[in-house]
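Thread: quick sanity check before group meeting

JM: Hey all, I'm pulling together slides for Thursday and realized we never actually wrote out the predicted structure for the chain we discussed last week. Dropping the sequence here so it's in one place. If anyone has concerns about the input, flag it before I start.
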Amino acid sequence: MIDVICDIDGVLYRGDVAVPGAANGLRSLNHAGARITYVTNNSTRSPTRAASKIEAVMGVATDVSQVITSSMAAISMLTLDDHPAMVVGESGVIDALAEAGVAMTNDPGEARSVVVGMDKRITYDVIASASAAIRSGARFLATNTDATFPTPTGFLPGAGSLIAAIATASGREPEVAGKPHQAIRDLIRSRGVEEAWVVGDRIETDIALATAEPLWRSILVLTGVSTIDDDISSADHVLADFESAVALVLSGPPHE
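JM (edit): ok, ran it. Output follows.
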């Protein structure tokens, strides 16, 4: 079986706009019987919402079981000693914590952990509360540290920019759950993924994810964050887009 670990934002679509040819690529993989695991650092959507958006934008049937998010990876790092958690993030983080039975609090004095993801409604007071909890000893977990987020009109600040503010104010650096870190790699492998292609648009997350695993090979596509002007030497292959990546994937196994 062909295993493909596929990033979403910047690879399949930007915002609500599909990358040209990406839907054809997905249909080709499905026709070939490939197993696609969508792995995203975007913490704002639950796996259900992420799968629904892929279907809506790409027109390709997608099951929630195919999706792994950085929120899921962060939850896998929590222990009972980390309850209750203070959450800085949107519904993707909050819903995932609630579904996992993690108690939550807004009180810095009660929080045993602080879980931070992307939050477009973040305020000064939220940063202050999260920083206070961390300074008081709460565990500091970041879903991901992506500095930017690709959209059809350019880049917006990503979760990493918010996390940097909390890290500066608290004097502590976070443990990171998402790509390319151990927690999310463990989740991927728990799905039975061994030898695989990794397709992504960001050197420091997607390509680094593949580099960390001996049986994973990377394809950088130039439709998202990283460009040909960056240091792309760590990528096994650099191609224009996802449709081109699929053509390479279907030509043979990663180590052939």
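AS: nice. The longest strand covers residues 35-40. Residues 3 and 196 are 5 Å apart (CA to CA).
JM: adding both to the slides.
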